Structures are given as C-alpha cells and as structure tokens.
Amino acid sequence: MKLRSSVYITAAVAVAGALIALMVFWVQKKTIDTYDTYMPYVTLGNNVKNITTKSHLSFEKYTSGDQSVDLKEKVFEPLNESLSGLMDAKRAQQTDLDKYAMLNDEHVSRLIDQSIVSVENLKSLSVKKQESAEDESIDRSFSAAYDHLQVNINELVDHVTNKMETEAANLQLVSIVITILIVVIFVLLCWFIFRMQNRNETVSKENKEKLKHEKERIDKMTVFVDSITSGNFENDLELDAEKDALAATLSKMKGQLQANQQEDNRRNWINTGLANFGELLRSDAEMATLGDSIISNLVNYLKANQGGLFVIEGADTSEPYLELKAAYAYQRKKYVDVKIYPGQGLTGQCWIEGQRVFLKEVPDDYMNITSGLGEALPSCILLIPLKINDETYGVLELASFHVFEDFEIEFVEKLAESIASTISNAKINSTTQELLESSQEQSEMLRAQEEEMRQNMEELQATQEEMERVSTEMREQIKIIDMTMATAEFDMSGHVKEVNDNFLNLMGYTKAEVIDKHHRMFVNDEEKNSAEYATFWEKLNRGESLNAEYHRVAKNGADVWIKGIYTPLLDKTGRPVRVVKFAQNITKERQQQRNLAKIANEMTEQLKVINATMSTVEFDLKGNVIGVNNNFLDLLSYTKEEIMGLNHISLLPPEEQDVERHVEFWADLATGQSYNNEFRLKTKGGSDVWIKGMYSPVLNNEGEPLKVLTFAYDISIEKAQQDMMMDQLKELDELKRTLQV
Question: Which residues are within 8 A (CB) of 514 and not within 5 positions of it... i.e. 6 or more apart?
Fold first, then answer.
C-alpha cells in the first residue's frame, strides 16, 4: 500500500513538473513568437524611414542643381525597395530578410496602405521632376508626400511597438506565476523525498534480507549444477522443489542426465566387453584353452563368483551329452569332469528348451546336484544356451553372489551367440578335415579297382574284342556313375541287393548292414507307414520310373536329401525284375535353401520392425525421393504424393541449403560412403526437426551403389531439452554475475 501511494505521489509530481515545463516552454515560445511577429514591422518601418530619407536628400540635391545625382540609383531604386517591402508586409509574405505574420489589425493595415500611397506619390513626383526640372511646385509636393510618409511610418512603428510590449508584459506576468509554482513544487518535492528516504531505509533492510536469501539459493543451485556438470550425481539440491519451479526443473534435469549417463555406461560396457571377447574368440587357440580363457575372463568381467562352459558332444550319436569344457571359481581354474544329458537338471533343461534360465532363489542343494562348480551357494544362477541359427552348441552357466542386471544378461546372450559361432566353425572345420581324409582314401580305393578292372579286361581282349568295346563303354559309364552318384539295386519287394560305396558313405552303413534289408530302413517312421510309400512301390512294380527329391534318414538319424531316379529293369517279357536307384546328395543344397529362407524371413521381420519403429526414406543417387514410409511422412507432415520426387535439399532448413556442400555430400554417397550423424530437417510447415540417422548406399552384385537408404529416428525432444538446459545454465550465470556486482 505504501509503495502504491509513493507511486501515485511521484506520478502526480511528475505530471505537475511536466505541466510546468510545458507552460515554461509555451511562455518562451509565445515570447519568441511575439517578437517574431512584430519585429519585422518595426524593422520595416525603420528601413523605410532610412531609405526614404536618403532618397529625399538625394532628390533635394538634384533639385538644387547638382546634376551628378543619379535619380534612378539614388531615388527610384530605394523607393522601389521601400515599396516592395511595404507590399510584402501587406500580403504577409516571407522575404529573404524577414517573415511577416498576418496581424489582423485594421489600423496597421491602414497605415501600411497609406505608406504605400505616399511612396508611390514620391515615385511619380520624382519622374515629373526629371521631366520638368524648373517646376518648384513639384518640390513642395515631394516634401509634403515625404512628411506624410514619415508620419505614417512613425505611427506604424509606435503602434506595433506598443502591442509587442503589451503582450511581452502579459507573458512576463505568466512567467512570474510559473516561477511561484516551481517553488511550491520544489518544496513539496523536498518534503516527499524526506518521507521517501525514511521509507527506503526500511525497504532497503527488507531487500537486503531477500537478496541474502536469494544469494544462498543461487549458490546452492550453482554448486548443484557444477556437480552435475562434473558428472557427480550424488549431491541433492537442498531446496523445496514444490515451491521453487527452477529447483524442480534442475532436479528433473539431474534425473534425466543421470539416467542418460547410466544408459551410456551400460552400452559402453556391453560394446567394450563384446569387442574384447571378439578378439579372444578370433584367436587360433585350441578349444580347451579357448574355453578356459572365455570363462575366466567372463567371470571376472561380470564380477561373478563361478562359471562353467558346457559343449555338446556326441551330437551325431543316439546319446548326445553336455561336457564341461572349462570351469572357473573364486579367481581359479577348476578341474571338474561333468557330463549332463538332455533334460538333466536346469542345465539339461536349458539345452533342450534353447531358452535362458535365470534363477534368483537357489535351492540349498543345487550346486551339489547339477552344477559341479563348487560348494559355495550363489544368490542367483544364469544359464544361457550357446545357440546360433536355432541350433544349440552348448550352455554357459554363471553363478554370482549379486543379482545380474538386465544389461549384463543381454551382454551374456550376445556373447553366447559369438561363442556358439566359434564352436560351430570349429566343428565344421573338423568335419571338413575328416571328409577330406575319407575322400582321399576312396580315391585310392577307386584307383586300385580301376587298375584291377583294366588288367581283367586285358586278359579277355584277345577273345572278346567286340565285347571289349561294349564293356569298355559300359565300364566307363558305370565308373562315372559310381564315382559321382550313390547307386543301389532292389528286388521288386524293396529289399537291397547291391549298393556302391557312395551310397554307403551317404547313409553311414556298411554293406553287410544293408544287403537284404528293406528299403524302408532309409525312411522315417511317418513315411514308411504312409499310403504314399505303398503307392511308391506299386508304381515301380508297374514298371514306372520315378524321378524326384526324396527325404531319407542316415544311420545316425541325420536327415539326408537326395535327387533320385528309381528305374525298373525289365526282362524279355517286359516284366520288372529289379529296381536301380541313382541318387545325388543334395542335403547341403537343401540346408542352404532352409538357411536362405530363414535369413530371408529374419530380414523381412527386421525390416518390418525397422519400418514400424523408425523413419525410412529411399533416394536415387541424385538425392531425389523414390520411396518413403509413413513414419517419415508423419515426421515431416508430408503426404506421399507431395514428397515423391522432391530433392533432399528441399527437406533442409534454408540456412543449410548449401548447394556446393549438398552436391559433395551426394557425390560421397554415390561412391559407396555412408554417413551416420545428427541431421536437421524442416517439416512441410517450415519448423525444424532433428533426427539421428544413417545415410547408407545400397549396392548391387558388382558392389556399385544403386540407391541411398536412410534410417532415422526423431531426437527433436532431446535437442530441445539440451537447449533448455543451456538456457537455464546461462540464466544461472547471469544471476550469479548480477549478485556479484
């Protein structure tokens, strides 16, 4: 209330002062205007008196006989000058010397008119005198006209001077009144300042207390922000966030920054671990040594207590099992011989189901029953299958006194895929080596058989030349077939009568194991009891040849796919007596087809996920839009018809539409270079949008770029938060500097 009264009083004094100032200004201006209005007429009167007096004296000299006087220069021109001045005053015109104001005074107008008439009379008399120099009456008339002009001019000057002095006196009175008002206002102002000084002392004390409290608040915020800037999130802001909006914002900012830092630390921890273990897995160490290195480093990296690496052995037998290849507990390698069969304990269950097992409540006797890792009882157990392409190669078992975090489990699962890939490659290399050795042995056997057959044919050559030719052709054909294909002969009931080595190697049997056995031993249970299988042999018994791809089962239970031809051999009567089978092993091709189909399905699902969660757009190599998904359209507020064909530069803000840099950017993409960064785009409405994305060229089979594919997601909110935080920091710095000043 006091402050409001002070404001009203101050405003009133200010208005009064402004009015007095305006009055002073008006008096000064009015005084100047008065002099500017009347002084030109006074000056005109004096000038006319002086000029006409000089003209009269020159005229007197001329009339007295002084012929050296030039009437035109000494009389006519001065009179014309006086007449011109009087005419300007009459019309209130502005001249080079003065500006005449309209006085609206009939007496002044009458005197000016009479003066003009007198000057004109003087001019006409001067002309007459020049024409008739002897006429003395002209001299008398000239003097009378001169005297009359002097009277009018004197009266004009006196009248104007009186009016000017009267108005000046009135203005002087107003000035005195204004001076009195100024003195009164000054006294009032002094009294008001005295009262305000007393009030200000009280307000000053209150403000000092407020400033002290605000300084403490700012200092607390500054310490809090400095600790956050240095990465220390332990300090709390000792302010009431419910009453202080800035404190609430800073506390919220701390939570967001702390969460972002924790997420970055976890991501860096996972990437660093995968990189370190990637180097370890790429080493050429044997499986036993590699397993020890993997499990010891993993236990230490996770800060766990125990760990074990189980690998599947005997996968091609009827009783596969998990064998403990490496164990590590309490900073030491453990030498434990453990075998676990399918479904046995949690480890066997993890193997069969192919899913992770995370146990937080561990039974007291768990380690003694199924683990084999030692006697200590952990707080949690983590079992991860070593699986890649839906095929399990082992199980990774970890035990710890602290519960594993989600990001640690995610890391172990990713690492398990890499370990499974390494085990798979090692087994493939071992199998390839075995097949190579077997192939070499078969080649030696074939060469021996060939030599034997050659010697037999040489013995018969002398007596059977014609048969030799036919036999040679058949032998070569049989040899080629025998070397390249798996062949078998069956009687019409389906029993095996003859097989070659390729067939035996393909199915994993010895010859003694298959001779006189029925063909159904090579098919699965479902097929051997089916109507299709019975129809298969019925067609062969009718003499029909069958050519197709067939699914067969090897001795070890493995799936075998063949491209086979079953052809009946007929006797002279046309009755089928035997069935000959020629087959090629296409198991790898079928496996590759399944793998390709699986990869295609995975890629399709990944593309669906990407298309559902991210903004994608396709450009040609010149930067023109050729494809876009709905997320990108929603992000920039375009329709598909509006954006198709637009160039990438049209999607940039005006300040970033640098043509030269844009051409260089797309030239790099056309060479196959990718860009992964934060980019700023503009929506259809012109507002800015920040994205985190990758511009990646799509290559053809020759490695040449065909188009550019962009994957991106919106980070505008994160950018706005960063800008908000920087603005708040700047405000804090400004407040701090203000308090210091």
Answer: 496, 499, 504, 507, 521
Residue keyed to tokens 């199924």: 370
| Tens-place pLDDT, residues 650-687 | 888 988 888 888 889 899 988 888 888 888 889 888 88
Domains with residue ranges and CATH for the chain: 2-201 (1.20.120.230), 292-431 (3.30.450.40), 485-593 (3.30.450.20), 614-726 (3.30.450.20)
Q: Confidence class of residue 158 from pLDDT cuts 50, 70 and 90?
A: confident
Nearest of 513, 523, 482 to residue 500 by alpha carbon: 482
Residues 617 and 625 sit within 8 Å (Cβ to Cβ): yes
Supply the Cα-derived Rg of the chain in whole angstroms. 59
Helices of type H across 542-678 = 587-613, 630-636, 640-643, 659-670
415, 273 contact by CB (below 8 A): yes
| Amino acid in position 181 | L
Strand order from edge to edge, sheet including 559-570: 496-499, 486-491, 576-585, 559-570, 546-553
Q: Quick one: pLDDT at residue 539? A: 92
Tokens 């009264």: give the residue.
5
- 228: CB partners within 8 A, 6+ apart: 253, 254, 257
Strands 688-699 and 486-491: what pairing? Answer: unpaired
Rounded to the nearest 5°, which phi and psi values hold at 573? -90, 0
DSSP letter at 510 equals: -
**pLDDT for 489-520, tens place per residue?**
999 999 999 998 888 998 999 999 999 999 99
Residue 406: both structure tokens together: 């989600």
In the chain the first and final C-alpha atoms are separated, in Å, by: 30
Determine how many CB atoms are found less than 10 A away from the CB of residue 483: 14
- Find out whether 102 and 129 touch, Cβ atoms under 8 Å: no
Q: List Cβ neighbours of 402 (8 Å cut-off, separation of 6 or more).
A: 303, 379, 380
DSSP assignment of 681-709, as one string? EE-TTS-EEEEEEEEEEEE-TTS-EEEEE
Q: Can you name the residues that pair with 277 across neighbouring β-strands?
A: none
Q: How far apart are CA 417 and CA 388, in angstroms?
A: 6
Q: Alpha-carbon distance 475 to 452, whole Å?
A: 12
Cα-based distances in Å from 70 to 5, 66, 75, 83, 430: 82, 10, 8, 19, 143
Sign, CA torsion 66/68/69/72: positive
Contact 112, 83 (CB under 8 A): no
Q: Give the span between the Cα atoms of 183 and 185, in whole angstroms.
A: 6
Q: Is 623 exposed, middle or buried (0-12, 13-18, 19+ CB in 10 A)?
A: buried
pTM: 0.34
Phi, psi for residue 570 in degrees, rounded to 5: -100, 150
Contact status, residue 157 vs residue 46, Cβ threshold 8 Å: yes
Across the beta sheet with 615-619, the strand order is 625-628, 615-619, 705-714, 688-699, 675-682
What is the number of other CB atoms lying within 10 angstroms of the CB of residue 130? 14
